[in-house]
Amino acid sequence: MHLSTILLTTLSVLTSSFELIPAVFTPFTEDGSIDYPKIEPYSTFLKEQQNISTVFISGTNGESLSLSLEERKRLTDEWAQTSSNVIVMVSSESIVDSVELSSYVKTVSETNSNIISVAAMSSSFFKPSTAQDLVDYLKPMAEAAAPLPFRYYHIPSMTGVSIDMIEFQDLVEDQIDTFVGIKYTDTDLFTLRKLILNKGEGVEHFWGKDEILITGIATGATSAVGSTYNFMGRTGYDIVNAFLTADLPSAQSQQDKIVNVVSSWGNLGGIPAQKAIMQMVGMDLGRGVRTPNRALTDEEYDDLEEKLKEVGFFD
Ligand SMILES: *[C@@H]1O[C@H](CO)[C@@H](O)[C@H](O)[C@H]1NC(C)=O
Predict the structure, then answer these.
(1) Atom 9 in ligand 1: which residue has the minimum CA distance?
(2) Mean pLDDT throughout 111-122?
(3) What percent of the chain has pLDDT over 70?
(4) Into which EC class is this enzyme placed (predicted)?
(5) What is the CATH number for 221?
(6) Is position 183 annotated as part of the catalytic site?
(7) CA of 215 to the centre of ligand 1 (A)
(8) Domain that holds residue 226
(9) 220-237: per-residue pLDDT in tens?
(10) Is the CA virtual torsion 33, 110, 89, 206 positive or negative?
(11) 51 CA distance to ligand 1 middle (Å)
(12) Considering the chain, what percentage of its residues have pLDDT values greater than 90?
């Protein structure tokens, strides 16, 4: 086969399958309860303005560990009604709640095909100490959600759990039938590459670091889950498409847009800052976050908007 034919064939496969999945925020009203009616317009905004077709709900950005079980059930209902592909993060610090949410999501999925999978991260207060302990911890959630596909959400920066992922993947593939992959939110690319080389059939790795999306694609992730795709979905796809058509300078300059935006919020806190950005781009989710996160003050909001103007975010 001619080289360009091989290249084109490979490209069309890659372009059509690499997907950007926003980890969605939870909208709150002034009194701190969840603003459920915002979910429908939010879902439409993602589809129409950001070219998004799959959402990751109830994760870090959704402040899931600060939500009640009832709230997370209701969020599952609301997103499943408005969005065509929904991945639900089901874990919490109590295995009882985690299993109950898993089985709730499975029940919803029996009458609503928009739910495509569940995901769970490790507990973080009491931590599993071996790869097998982590598999044992995840198993009841995966079983309660089965036959829904199950993903492990690896985010050591938040959980403090840094178990050997290679060993973990070997064990989880053997012991959890519905295991389909890892959402990999870490910068250790060597480990990610080894995970990809060692993986069984049907297992995929989702990349979780927006500000270095290029490296995730280059290392072999098949999709990416992140916060900035909520408002920079098109920039994200510009990076993906430039990279896959071997236009590295363009991929890098598109990547710099995300680098500049992520840098602009400094230590304001990613979630409150990005909720402010959602408001700036016309998708008002309220500025509220759940304590101990803290909403931006008006002054912080204005400063952030000014910094974003300086880096050309609104151009
Ligand atoms: C929109 O998303 C699809 C994947 O769902 C992607 O292949 C396409 O390149 C994106 N288009 C733009 C203009 O970002």
Answers:
(1) 237
(2) 98
(3) 95
(4) lyase
(5) 3.20.20.70
(6) yes
(7) 19
(8) 3-247
(9) 999 999 999 999 999 999
(10) negative
(11) 6
(12) 94
